[in-house]
Amino acid sequence: MNFLAHILLSGEREGVIMGNYVGDFVKGRLTETKTANWNPEYVLGLKLHRFIDSFTDSHEEVREAKHLAARSLGKLAGIVTDIYFDYFLAKHFADYHSDPLFVYAHATYSTIEKNEYLIPEEMIPMVRAMIRQDWLTGYATFEGIDTTFQRLSRRVAYLEPIQSAGQDLRANEAFYYEKFLLFFPDLQAGSAQFLADNAA
């Protein structure tokens, strides 16, 4: 899953939100020795991020979505599927949260800015661009998704083909949305259970 889903699945605790948000930028095993002086809720958020990634990768509906995406996008299918699912989450955000997406996104940006000290240094330029360009709200439209893919395509050479992923989403939107609807409630339930079982 992409940023919006990771943040939403964190609940309301800022430490958990921040750990889940930065999860891709914290490498290595989260041993007791390594995390001894870290905020326990931040560590829980990091662990939740890894749970979400593992749960997503192993889910049958996600595998079927990736299989279709791979026909046109090959090894990039996993990345684009994560973003497709954030598109559906953003587009139908009222089904998943009481706040409008714009309000939720900007409250999230405030939380991130307040806790910038928890963000790995190499991630900070991306975070500031995300807030400045309002990525989370942008996920709700095809135009915003196209911008996301264009941005990714410029990062490294192997991602260049991803700029065409919006075409696949447009052509197969109904199929991907069906997979999202079958998958996301399972992820919500699994994430909530993980937080309950591993509460700091």
Describe what this molecule looks like in 3D.
This protein has one domain (3-197). The protein is mainly alpha-helical. It has eleven helices and no strands.
Note the main sheet: none
- How widely separated are the two ends? 24 Å
- Helix-and-strand structural type: mainly alpha
> Low-confidence segments, ≥5 residues, pLDDT <50?
none
Binned, the helix content reads 55-70%
| DSSP strand content | under 5%
Radius of gyration, in angstroms, nearest whole number: 16 Å
What is the number of helices?
11
Q: Mean pLDDT, nearest integer? A: 95
Number of strands: 0
SSE string, helix = H, strand = E? HHHHHHHHHHH
Number of self-contained structural domains: 1
Q: What global shape is seen?
A: globular
Kindly summarize this structure in a few lines.
The chain is mainly α and 200 residues long. The chain has helices at 3-8, 14-21, 40-58, 60-73, 77-91, 101-114, 124-133, 135-138, 142-153, 165-171, 173-197.
Name its key features:
11 helices, 200 residues, 0% strand
Write the layout of secondary structure elements.
Blueprint lengths: L2 H6 L5 H8 L18 H19 L1 H14 L3 H15 L9 H14 L9 H10 L1 H4 L3 H12 L11 H7 L1 H25 L3
Helix pairs in contact: 2-3, 3-11, 4-5, 4-11
